[in-house]
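Hi all, a correction to my earlier message: I attached the wrong file for VOC family protein. Here's the right sequence:
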Amino acid sequence: MERGFDIKALGEIAIRCGDVGRQVAFYRDVLGLEVLSGSSDDDGIVFFRIGPGYGGHTAVLALFARDAGRAEIHPHTSDAPRTGAGSSLHHLALTVDHEAQENAMRWFSHHGIDYRVEVFDWIGWRGVFCLDPEGNTVELVAFDPSLLAADGQEKEDSDGKGVSQP
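and the right structure:
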């Protein structure tokens, strides 16, 4: 039997939160995502627009209070969700324009948000990484063809050092 389907895009990523209000403030006010639906005060579920998605399905980020949602579909507990190294979520990457990364770094600095930058020359990406209020790693990633390594060799900066870990 053939599989009969191909994945076209990521439709939604949902994160269970200990403090939905703090998380909403970060994703809305710091990262600038648009709230589509919900409120941390109402049912503890908030949906944000990430992008246009595929086939009419808007790509979304959903934040769920630890005990929100339908338990028969998504089991939950009153315990605080695990984040950081103890979480099964490694990181969340959101795509931005390469030029916008510089603005993001200035914005993060202005708001006292620590970040780090990494270059992935094997694919031509640069990532700006920070933590959300609950310790989840968030990456603002951008493609820049000038970052691509030639023939699989690590690209070097002007000092002759590799740039995969600036």
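Sorry for the mix-up. Residues 157-166 have pLDDT under 50 and may be disordered.
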